[in-house]
Each structure stands twice: as C-alpha cells, then as structure tokens.
Amino acid sequence: MVGQLRTYRSWVRNDDLVPFYAVVKETDLYIRAQRYLKDEALSAVKKCRADIESYIAGHNDFLTTLEPIDVMPDAPQIVVAMADAARKAGVGPMAAVAGAVAEVVGRELMQWSPEVIIENGGDIFISTSKPRTVGVFAGDSPFSGKLAVEIGAGRIGACTSSGTVGHSLNFGNADAVLILSPSTALADAAATAVSNVVKTASDIPAALELAQSIDGVSGVLIVIGDRLGIWGEVKLSPGDVA
Fold it and tell me: pLDDT (tens digit, 9 = 90+) per residue, 186-203?
C-alpha cells in the first residue's frame, strides 16, 4: 500500500528486471521489465490520462460519483474497464483508476517485455513467468512489512486499499485490504469496496464474504491491527520480498 513517501518501494528487489519510473502529473508508476522502456511507458500513461480526462470533461459525474455508473457506448476502453470493474464491486469508477492505468500500461509494455511489474500507489499489475512475492505494507499494524503474498507465474492484479494509510477516499479503518484478481482494475475497485466495510476487527467475516461475492476476485487479505482475514488464492510468505 502506498505510503506518503512511497518508501515501501525500497523493499522490492530488482535482481532480474530493470527498474524505472514513469511519472506524468499525479500518475507515478514504478516499473520493472526486461528492458528499459521508460519512453514507451510514458507514452502509454499519457494516452491513459488523455482518454480519462477527455471523458470526464464531458461527463463530470464519472469523476465524482461514489456509485456505479453507465458510460457512453463510444467511451475510451480504459473508461469502460473502470466502469465495468466499479459495477462489479459496487463503487464509483474512480476507485478503479490506479489499477486500470497499471494494467493498460502493463499490457502495452508486454509487446517488448513479457515480464513486467507495474506498481501504481499500491496497485500492482504483474506479468511473470516465475513466482514472485508482493510485500504487504499496512501502516502501524505489527504485520506491516513482515508479510508477503506469493504470486505464481501468469498475469494478475494485486491491489491494496487502506483506511489508515495514504490519501485515497476510504470509509473504513483497515490497515490494508489486498485483493487478487486477473483484472487489475477490478482488484483496485474491490479493494476499495471491501476496505470500506472494515471499521473494526469484528467486520472481517463480513468483509471476506463481500470479497467472495464479487465476480472475478480470486483472493483477499485483510489486516486491521493485529488481526488478519484471508480467503481464496492467497498464500502468505513471511519475511522479505523476493
């Protein structure tokens, strides 16, 4: 999950992939790939932002609503993906924006690098041919930095939302809710939806049930204080991120 200075990025080892950044206005991507693809990444980010911004210019409710919303038939592909993810999770479409951008940029870079990992404020698109681990940053929880989730070979989104860390709108108190899904946009939207209902540790069972009900979610990890909730394809790996 994002921290104010994103110091959690220093936890990621880069032994086999080339690390670089792609920053455009508020969008700040940390990318690892088999090649240095910064120019290609920047081009993809600018396209994503232009598509979203142009749609918002004519449909401001897409930016402001906290509920699912229909979009125009001719809406840009990333806007449609955000709206679809939001509808499944029961949240507004901007809850999916970070995951959607990471996914679109990741798919673009896969033309040159089948192995690519893109982190966007705690929301991660992963395409890998070997197992990886994703560290769990959970604010002041005793579990923060001490747990990692094992990710198998393939393509997946791993997105985190928090009610205690970062600046994103959130109505819960979870230190971290991590969602796994083949769709990074959906993982992002679902992380927000699940995190919103976790006010205390007693809400963990209801939050796990909500995660299970969202079509396309394959796993969830909830951290609040010294309590954990886990469901689905989440395999914990204590220790450092590898």
Answer: 999 999 999 999 999 999
Residue 76 within any structural domain of the chain: yes
pLDDT recorded at residue 8: 44
Q: Which domain holds residue 123?
A: 7-236
**Helix-helix angle 38-58:77-89, to 10 degrees:** 70
The H-or-E segment that residue 134 falls in is strand 132-135
- CATH number, residue 34: 3.10.520.10
Query: Which residue ranges of the chain lie beneath pLDDT 50?
Result: 1-12, 240-242
Beta bridge partner(s), residue 126: 117, 156
92 contact partners, CB below 8 Å, separation of at least 6: 64, 65, 66, 67, 68, 69, 86
Which residues pair with residue 218 across a beta bridge? none
What is the pLDDT, as a whole number, of residue 146? 79
* Domain assignment present for 201: yes
Domain assignment of residue 73, yes or no: yes
Number of domains present in the structure of the chain: 1
**Exposed, middle or buried by CB within 10 Å (0-12, 13-18, 19+), for 26?**
exposed
Ramachandran assignment for 28, one of left (phi > 0), alpha (psi -120 to 50 degrees), beta (any other): beta
208 domain residue, yes or no: yes
Model's pTM, two decimal places? 0.90
Token match 């080339």: residue? 18
